[in-house]
């Protein structure tokens, strides 16, 4: 029997589950390290595991037929990877990987789906999480269409900050280019942009 306790895990979804649901998952839970670039979801491949992050930042990216990449979502300690399986979709064309290294709890997909089927209240909670993720995606699309680059960057930095719970954000030019949907050279030419946007975003919160 796993020694995980619902009162001590850091992942907010796991903490919010009904106790019955958590107990169904607990025997199959495994603590895992999640290094930089580790793939949580591989595009076009059915998931064997779902991951509940406790530290670090996962990045959900969409890829065009020309191999152009843009980030369409984040996962931190509030969420989980592979949420598409709750919609009865075994695989997705989007990829999810660790943009900032961390750790989490893995659960076999079959165990997770069995839990969601057995505990309707847990299934409802998880579907609300999917809905919130869709709202985040919708507002990202709105920002990309209507905001200028510093405004978009400030928004994304705030989203990263919320999930990492730290002021030190280890973001590379490559990540910023994926995040903003621009070429890496466009980010490099604006080296002062992250600092300016970060100061702007912090000022908005004060």
Account of the 3D structure:
The chain has 206 residues and is of the alpha+beta class. It folds into two domains: 146 residues, Jelly Rolls; 60 residues. It has eight helices and five strands. Strands 1, 2, 3, 4 and 5 form a five-stranded antiparallel beta sheet that branches. A hairpin with a 5-residue loop joins strand 3 and strand 4.
Q: What is this entry, summarized?
A:
The chain has 206 residues and is α+β, with helices and mostly antiparallel strands.
Named at the architecture level, the CATH assignment of the largest domain is Sandwich
Number of helices: 8
CATH superfamily of the largest domain: Jelly Rolls
Poorly predicted runs are: 191-206
Q: Which structural class fits the helix and strand makeup?
A: alpha+beta
SSE sequence, one letter per element: HHEEEEEHHHHHH
How much is the radius of gyration in Å? 18 Å
- What's the pLDDT, averaged over the residues? 85
Number of strands: 5
The share of residues in helices is 40-55%
Instruction: Give a short account of the largest sheet.
Output: 5 strands, antiparallel
Q: What is the domain total for the residues?
A: 2
What is the CATH topology classification name of the largest domain?
Answer: Jelly Rolls
Q: How far do the termini sit from each other?
A: 46 Å
Beta-strand content bin:
15-25%
Rough outline:
globular
């Amino acid at each position: 029997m796993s020694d995980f306790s619902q009162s001590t895990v850091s992942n907010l979804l796991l903490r919010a589950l009904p106790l019955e649901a958590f107990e169904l998952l607990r025997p199959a839970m495994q603590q895992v390290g999640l290094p930089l670039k580790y793939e949580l979801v591989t595009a076009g491949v059915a998931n064997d595991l779902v991951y509940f992050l406790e530290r670090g930042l996962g990045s959900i990216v969409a890829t065009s037929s020309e191999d152009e990449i843009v980030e369409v979502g984040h996962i931190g300690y509030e969420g989980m990877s592979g949420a598409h399986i709750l919609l009865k979709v075994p695989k997705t064309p989007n990829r999810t990987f660790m943009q900032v290294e961390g750790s989490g709890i893995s659960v076999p997909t079959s165990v997770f789906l069995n839990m969601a089927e057995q505990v309707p209240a847990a299934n409802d909670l998880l579907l609300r999480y999917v809905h919130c993720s869709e709202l985040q995606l919708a507002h990202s699309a709105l920002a990309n269409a209507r905001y200028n680059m510093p405004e978009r960057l400030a928004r994304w930095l705030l989203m990263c900050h919320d999930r990492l719970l730290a002021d030190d954000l280890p973001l590379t030019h490559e990540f910023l280019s994926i995040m903003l949907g621009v070429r890496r050279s466009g980010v490099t030419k604006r080296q002062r942009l992250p600092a300016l946007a970060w100061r702007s975003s912090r000022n908005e919160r004060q």
